[in-house]
Amino acid sequence: xxxxxxRSGELYVKACTLLPGGxxxxxxxxxxxxxxxxxxxxxxxxxxxxEDGNDFIDYCMSWGPLILGHADNDVVKAIQKVAENGTSFxxxxxxxISIAEMVVNAFPSIEKVRFVNSGTEATMxxxxxxxxxxxxxxxxxxxGCYHGHADxxxxxxxSGLATFGMPDSAGVTKNAAKDTIVVKYNxxxxxxxxxxxxxxxxxxxxxxxxxNYGLILPENDYLHKVRQLCTQHNVLLIFDEVITGFRLAxxxxxxxFGVHADITTLGKIIGGGLPVGAYGGKAEIMAKVAPDxxxxxxxxxxxxxxxxxxxxxxxxKLVPSAYQKLEELGKxxxxxxxxxxxxxxxxxxxxxxxxxxALYFSKDETITTVDQVKESNMQQFAQFHRLMLExxxxxxxxxxxxxxxxxxxxxxxxxxxxxxxxESLALVLG
Length: 430
Fold this sequence. Notes:
alpha/beta, Aspartate Aminotransferase, domain 1, Aspartate Aminotransferase, domain 2, 2 domains, 4-stranded mixed beta sheet, about 35% helix, globular
């Protein structure tokens, strides 16, 4: 059942002579699952085909933005139509207004929005805005939440319940990290302790649902309690909804949980698969952004016509019935997984929320902390990943990443996936 990946192997060897690690983003390198990355030439609907002709049901979905599936006809047509009139102007165009209106209408907490080119840009800019608005310098982030690769966000927790962070990457200086405080996600007491003993905190930035360290859901009223503490201490709350925005609901996690952030960052889906990001909030806060205010942020290709067109075409199709279908697919997936999970009780765990899912090789019955994810058996995941590839299912090549359903996935896809999971688990777990 071994795959023929000879052409991908040849491409990888050549890529390693030209690109660091042969890739343009570390997680693509297959280092944690073994072997070399696959090189893809075609994606349509829920499937992708690599350079060797192997056909896979895809649950990476370009790490989340392809909520309509690969090469959606309406998105492709929108890109083609706009590209014929010009790929970039470096000047305003009507599409920017149209997509901004869609975002503002979807998120009650956003009255004005600024578009950028990536999620990293969005979170970096949002934090600068929070500092400029409050006049404070320190920020709080939560262990397990990823917000891009800006220096002050590549920070790991120090020792103790809640401490000033330490650099989590070479090239990040202690000075870059010193204004970032890391607390545990789902630990409201840790947040209360920090906020009660520091009056120089500009913002808390968090993924309302952790999707970059497995799938960790907020416990009970955790998000509401975070909101209350931030309000109480005059600290801005930033929700990083780069993944959850327009995926958990049209209004993202804020709609799903009924909690409003002061600043929201978006990405992924609002570009329809093209590079894009955004940050927005109340008009009073956004008034600080240049050219209206003193917080400088710029981008030559921000709001470029092609990404905007893809985003508009995508958002136009995310109507209530689309989310209903995604929820039904998610429930079907979960129901079909139950007998599989029951056979391996105490050895693995399947978690789903809306159209996002994760599979852990863990003895735990629930996952609520990063420490639990760290304790999962990543060697077993690596073996599982290879077996799933052999059975025609493509998962993100890391046990710390989540999977995504799209509107292009079918129950037949899920049935085939369940069969592959069952067969693969039998070999991994016996």
